[in-house]
């Protein structure tokens, strides 16, 4: 219990902001971060779609192990991994309780395990790719694959501005706390304190959205002043912007290893379809 309290005390908005900044802008130091963004996005599409059509738990387990390895290589923030694990555990937990309510038993855990493996593979693939691509390379990779430039830039801009929004949220939250007063007593199960903070979170939402709209308008005006619309609609500018993208040896080796690994999983799953129960 003391270890849990010490871990919770180290969690703060500032620490989460630093972790987000590290995730968004420190990706080039990892092995996957040096790969071509086009190859990474195609790799991600395969592992985001294929698990939905696979029901062999041996194949799904093999994909899950591969995703765990790539997640470690990506040096994903522990906070992101914790949120992922919390979501998966809570999801399978309430589904199991719901099955018990309708007369199910322990045998209902098996199909839930299959679903959990599917979601784990897809989630870890998403974390791996988006932790390995900074906003600029993500936008360039999408644009090179034929995604409309406006959508690619919007996704990159939202990814880039997330730490800024978190910092602004923290500042507005502190201002509300300075001008308000916490309940003198926590109440039963800290219900008064929880209600106080929930009310502040609702109130913070409105100025945060207003400031975000102002910031977005300023960004649009700055981009138009620098000729963003002309650059987006000019093929020569796009070609020059994407000229640094190049498939190298490590990209082909990673793609070949992934293809061979997944290719071996299917005959293994055919031979051992019930490797896990």
UniProtKB/TrEMBL annotation:
Topological type in the membrane: Multi-pass membrane protein
InterPro entries: ABC/ECF_trnsptr_transmembrane
CDD domains: EcfT (cd16914)
Keywords: Membrane, Transmembrane, Transmembrane helix
Transmembrane regions listed in the UniProt entry: 41-67, 79-102, 109-130, 187-209, 252-276
Record keyword Transmembrane helix present: yes
Subcellular localization: Membrane
Listed PANTHER family: PROTEIN ABCI12, CHLOROPLASTIC
Name of this chain's protein: Energy-coupling factor transporter transmembrane protein EcfT
Organism in which the protein naturally occurs: Paenibacillus tianjinensis
